[in-house]
Amino acid sequence: MSNDGEKKQFWKRNTSKVPGSIQHVYGAQHPPFDPLLHSSLIKPGSKSQTTQVKPKKAISFQEFQSITSDAWDTGDDDDDKLLAMATQSLNTKVVMEAANKVIENHSRLQEQKSQDEKISDVPHILETKETCLHPHSEVKMVKSLSEAHITVTDAAGEKPTLQRQQSLPSRPIIPLVARIADQNTSESPAMTEREASRLDKFKQLLAGPNSDLDEIRKLSWSGIPKQVRPITWKLLSGYLPANVDRRESTLQRKRQEYFGFIEQYYNSRNDEDHKETYRQIHIDIPRTNPLIPLFQQASVQEIFERILFIWSIRHPASGYVQGINDLVTPFFVVFAFEYIEEEEVENFDVSSLPEEVLRNIEADSFWCMSKLLDGIQDSYTFAQPGIQKKVKMLEELVSRIDEQVHNHLQQCDVSYLQFSFRWMNNLLMRELPLRCTIRLWDTYQSEPEGFSQFHLYVCAAFLLSWKKDILEEKDFQGLMILLQNLPTMHWGNEEIGVLLAEAYRLKYAFADAPNHYKR
What confidence tens digit (pLDDT) does each residue in 109-128 have? Predict the structure, then answer.
């Protein structure tokens, strides 16, 4: 047949360039191939060729068919060369960057561990809030432990180095920013004498027939030991009564009431009136702390969905607003610690807990979150007037405290609403690691109107703690990138303690004298 010759020629190699061959992909991550920059990839004796661009001419369909006849030929030597070239270039770059990051992170952690073990005479920052009001004291904000100008060397005068390199761990590696345990103390499990004394004071106050809530608040201002944090949070939030004999019956009644809401309302989540609310909750839950495996477990996400849906049903004035999903996480983690003994709660599999325990954690988290939101609900009603008011107050406060920072923000056309709206809406949870949020909430719950009023002064102190970095940025883009990505991943209890002390100093100076900062 006349077509036999054509069939035999169909898979014949064509020496011309054909569609389907692997070519260089240009762009930001793949720059054009430069023989000068990639000389190591060029075989000896080969010469760089320059091709002149010729205007294209129209071709017939038969010509096009012949050109593309071997487009799927996998034996093209030129393609293999380009693949090897791309692989070598990619591996060299990516592998070296990844290796350097791993070594740097491990070295930093080892150095931090050595400092924590050898520095025993560093004074604790502000045991109580009265300490920060001493007339001769000077509070200085530090962004990390590295700014304390403390250097530690070993006996040979050399900095600590990575001592060992083992095989990959069986559990996923948690980034420092996502670790729940305080990074300043997690490597030194031994309890100090001061910490043991504070824990004993808490236990004595909690064991009495009627706990003195005022004394508990004073003691909690400087932080609550994790062993007694669950019951202390329940007391300070108003979820549990001060009378010891009534606590167990109150817990049983409130837990039954919550699951009564589940039976009554949760099946309506797909109804026309509630379908949109549930859809938004279902979308937001996986975004909650995505770096922490604990919150990516299906059973945990189902718990969060029920908590947020029931809360929105019971609060129709505001309903569900994005950001409320973040407010569940501190309560869930703290109440889970009551039943989890291991340190790495980030990796804990909640399915190993009994069903009754999970139900208790869920109900307790719901009621304590509800108590919190009751005090700041105007932040989540229509147009969020509470947040707008607080942002305006923050602007007025900063303009009086540090006019240089305020003027710099104005000169760069940075509005306070552009960066501090999230601070107010999420209570700084997007700016701080979860471990810092938990420590921060110890103080918020011990302060009168901590979440609604004291948070304003914490935001002011938080902003001014980055004064040097803010003034170094000279344009709108640089400032917004900084303020929306503040480097707090290394923060722990010490940094939060200093931040709270400065916030209390501002509150002491301005809260009872509003005319000092109002224009």
Answer: 766 766 665 554 444 444 44
Phi-psi region of 75 (alpha: psi -120 to 50; beta: other; left: phi over 0): alpha
Q: Are 451 and 376 in contact (CB under 8 A)?
A: yes
- Residue 124 tokens, joined: 């604790």
Hey, what amino acid is at 444?
A: Y
Q: Which residues of 297-334 are buried (b: 16+ CB within 10 A; e: fewer)?
A: eeebeebbbbbbbbbbbebeebbbbebbbbbbbbbbbb
Q: Helix, strand, or coil here: 243? A: strand
The DSSP 8-state label assigned to residue 175 in this structure reads P
Tokens (6 digits) for 324 = 């409320």
For 96-163, what is the HEC assignment?
HHHHHHHHHHHHHHHHHHHHHHHCCCCCCCCCCHHHHHCCCCCCCCCCCHHHHCCCCCCCCCCCCCCC
Extract the tokens encoding 66: 């012949």
* DSSP-assigned states of every residue in 17-84: --TTS-----SSSSPPP-TTTTGGGSPTT---------------HHHHHHHTTTTT-TT-HHHHHHHH
Q: How confident is the model at residue 104 (pLDDT cuts 50, 70, 90)?
A: confident
Give the rounded distance of the alpha carbon of 293 from its chain centre. 13
